[in-house]
Design brief:
By secondary structure, this protein is an all-alpha fold. The protein contains nine helices and no strands.
Length: 179
């Protein structure tokens, strides 16, 4: 049921997919869905949590499989590969936040946690690389990541992941300073 709901939420949008649609596609009853997940809101949060965990594993696996790539720049390569394979509609977290206005909705909490994790991951990589101000660098790199996913997902620039990687390389070459 979660697999079916996840695919439908990502492909069609959260508000466009009702519990009836999920039940029919999963070949279960609505009661079964509510018995298992209690609410559509919980199902949405679980979908995003699962995607968050998959992305974290993807990033970790990418780093192991590409040890010659500088780790910070590797995050852009991993993001690009993820988007090509799993992210044709862009960032599931940004999409969900665009559909769900309530800042207290459980899906918004999962989204905040995902973005905080990515920023923290970039901070850790900057610290490991010996950058003087890893917090600022992490914020800059996160902005490049997020900009790339949005531009890619709306079809404005399918080369945005590479463009953002190139910008990150320039930033890193200048010690994390834009000038």
């Amino acid at each position: 049921m979660l697999d079916v709901a996840s695919e439908l939420f990502y492909e069609r949008g959260i508000h466009a997919v009702g519990v009836d649609t999920i039940a029919a596609a999963a070949e279960v009853t609505k009661k079964t869905i509510y018995d298992r997940f209690r609410s559509k809101d919980n199902l949405i949060a679980l979908y995003l949590h699962r995607r968050d965990q998959a992305y974290r594993r993807w990033m970790a696996d990418w780093a192991v499989e590409h040890p010659r790539t500088p780790p910070i720049l590797g995050t852009f390569d991993a993001m690009s590969a993820w988007m090509t394979r799993y992210g044709k509609r862009g960032c599931a977290f940004v999409n969900a936040s665009g559909e769900i206005a309530d800042p207290e909705h459980p899906a918004r909490q999962v989204t905040r946690e995902h973005k905080a994790w990515l920023r923290g991951h970039l901070h850790d990589l900057a610290t490991d690389a010996g950058h003087d101000d890893p917090g600022t660098l992490a914020a800059q790199l996160l902005s490049l990541h997020e900009g790339a996913t949005v531009l890619y997902s709306v079809g404005a620039d399918l080369t945005a992941p590479q463009t953002s990687r190139d910008a990150a390389a320039v930033l890193l070459a200048h010690g994390g300073r834009a000038t």
